[in-house]
Design goal:
The protein is mainly β and about 210 residues long. It has no helices and 17 strands. Strands 1, 2, 3, 6, 7, 9, 10, 11, 12 and 16 form a ten-stranded antiparallel β-sheet that branches.
């Protein structure tokens, strides 16, 4: 029987629309082979451009979404990380978030999906949350931290986001600095891992992967 997320019982729940997997956009901007884009609220990903670029990937995001390959699974003790280079200010006119997710189960099932994610934004803050079905449980609310690099005047910012799972803890890391740690007890950390990029962002992603 799947573990329940015991440590989230006291956290406020924000109801959001379910997500829907979506086929890669057609044409020259089709997603790299093996990748799935799953948008928030079931919005179409036609406005999203996701491509391999150099040793990494580039995303010009339409709707907020997670990006993953079904073969990317992690168990036990591991570290998931990626470096995000924000190129310009978000088209939305306000700060948007990007980062990594892990512990994903039943990702394709909107009612059963679960995963945790750590994201940062260009105002110098980070956020950690748990998604269960159509609900989001904020575990660590938006919190300013000097480890998160703020955007330059032109909107550019580069931040490495990592989650390190050890025998007893979940360590949240930004640019090599721990910004928060939580007990692993009661948290289901095994499963799918991948990327999260919110809407309107233009980011280059490098060094994405998992180490055990």
């Amino acid at each position: 029987m799947r573990k329940t997320v015991l440590t989230l019982s006291m956290v406020a729940v924000a109801s959001v629309p379910a997500q829907q997997p979506t086929a890669a956009p057609a044409g020259p901007w089709a997603a790299p082979a093996g990748w799935t884009i799953k948008t928030d609220g079931g919005a179409a990903a036609a406005d999203t451009k996701f491509q391999s670029m150099g040793q990494g990937f580039h995303v010009t995001a339409g709707p907020a979404a997670i990006y993953y390959r079904a073969t990317d699974q992690a168990t036990g003790n591991f570290t998931v990380k990626a470096t995000f280079g924000q190129r310009t200010r978000p088209a939305t006119g306000h700060s948007e978030a990007f980062g990594v997710f892990f512990g994903g189960t039943d990702i394709a099932d909107n009612a059963k999906q679960q995963y945790f994610y750590l994201v940062v934004r260009d105002d110098g803050s980070y956020y950690f949350a748990h998604r269960a079905g159509g609900d989001v449980h904020p575990v660590v609310p938006w919190t300013a931290n000097d480890a998160v690099k703020k955007a330059a005047e032109n909107g550019s910012a580069t931040n490495e986001v990592a989650v390190k799972i050890t025998a007893d803890s979940v360590h949240m890391m930004v640019n090599g600095t721990q910004v928060k740690a939580l007990s692993r007890k009661g948290l289901m950390t095994d499963g799918q891992f991948g990327l999260r990029v919110n809407h309107g962002l233009n980011v280059h992603i490098a060094n994405f992967g998992m180490q055990q």
